[in-house]
Amino acid sequence: MKIPLEIAYENMEPTPDAERHVLRGLERLERVSPDLMAVRVTLAQRNPRRETGTLYQVNLQLTRPGPDVAISRTAPRHSESENLVTAIGEAFEKARRELIELRDIRRGDVKGHEPPQFGKVTDLFPDYGFIRGADDRIVYFHRNSVGGAWAEVHVGDEVRFGDEPGEKGPQATMVQIVEGRR
Q1: What number of helices (H) and strands (E) belong to the chain?
Q2: Are residues 123 and 82 in the same domain?
Q3: To which H or E segment does residue 57 belong?
């Protein structure tokens, strides 16, 4: 990290235990994103006079190449008491997941959705049928892939579908009738 870690405390005194857990969380973040430039952590004690217990809020500001990451972890309102270490751990875990997602997007590892394809129903049987796609492929589909519209499907209907590899060739995962085109 290029800029030293900043830890701010609101409504509470600094503790070595809290700082140790923040540093441990930071080590995990740097393994996922070694390009972190600055990290600011705010530890805040909320409702300090409440008789049922103390709740903590942990805010993280991560500066890095690309978009900055801001994480706010607030205890649920129904919590009667909470541990500061737990709050710190949950905030850093949330930040770690966010950094992994951003890293995967940058690498192109995020799976994109294929656009739907179009075709015509060529054959129908009691529980399944076949579609000839615009690319001339024959695609199997089961009545479940049509949802509740199975009774409305007829040979010759134009359909929109998504497919995936099946045991015996391409299989439609979703089939929708294109309205007004029979």
Answers
A1: 2, 9
A2: no
A3: strand 55-63
